[in-house]
Design brief:
The protein is α+β, with helices and mostly antiparallel strands. It has six helices and six strands. Helix 2 packs antiparallel against helix 3.
Length: 191
């Protein structure tokens, strides 16, 4: 996949991704990796390595050797996403945060990154507070999944993606996800 900008709906709206930032290692609790990522302004995926790779090519080979081809492909997808892509994550309180990828892949060899299993990172620009779902006032709670979304609300495709669970970095492919995410970003950034 080329690192050039990839639009999700045939326009200039950047793609949208789910970034759970949860380790596959059962000894690593959920939550601290997201807290670290938000505090440092990064987005990442797991896959601790004994020797820090100097390039993505070295990282892919090492991850393939240690964790297998599937995990190496996940890392490749993460590293190949265009800068400017939107990314959503969820903290330990269940709140959703919106950010954008702003830099290339790098390996963080720090003990802190190792402790939370978040060594493969990219610089990110996160909103300063979570995006809370806002149900339209005329709709009962639980019945609003496919209702129009207020500008500051979490888009339905994002909610659906996190509701499915999982620990994988993945594209949020619902047709309106990119457009609605861009509207949330604009409403929060005043652009």
């Amino acid at each position: 996949m080329s690192p050039s900008a990839r639009a999700s709906s045939g326009d200039d709206t950047p793609s949208v991704y789910r970034a759970p930032m949860r380790s596959r290692d059962g000894d690593v609790p959920d939550g601290p990796a997201v807290e670290r990522a938000l505090a440092l302004g990064v987005c990442g995926v797991g896959g601790r390595l004994d020797d820090a790779p100097d390039s993505i090519a070295e990282a892919l080979a090492a991850v393939d050797e240690v964790y297998g081809e599937r995990m190496a492909r996940r890392l490749d997808r993460f590293a190949s996403v265009a800068e400017g892509a939107f990314v959503w994550t969820r903290d330990s309180d269940g709140l959703l945060w919106l950010g954008r990828i702003t830099g290339p892949w790098r390996y963080d060899p720090s003990p802190q990154a190792r402790a939370v299993d978040l060594p493969h990172v990219r610089a990110g620009d996160w909103l300063d507070r979570p995006v809370e779902p806002v149900a339209p006032p005329h709709v009962r709670a639980g019945d609003w999944l496919d209702q129009p979304v207020a500008p500051a609300a979490v888009p339905p495709g994002v909610r659906e993606s996190f509701a499915r669970g999982g620990r994988n970095w993945q594209s949020i492919s619902r047709a309106d996800a990119a457009r609605l995410t861009a509207a949330v970003w604009s409403s929060r950034r005043g652009r």
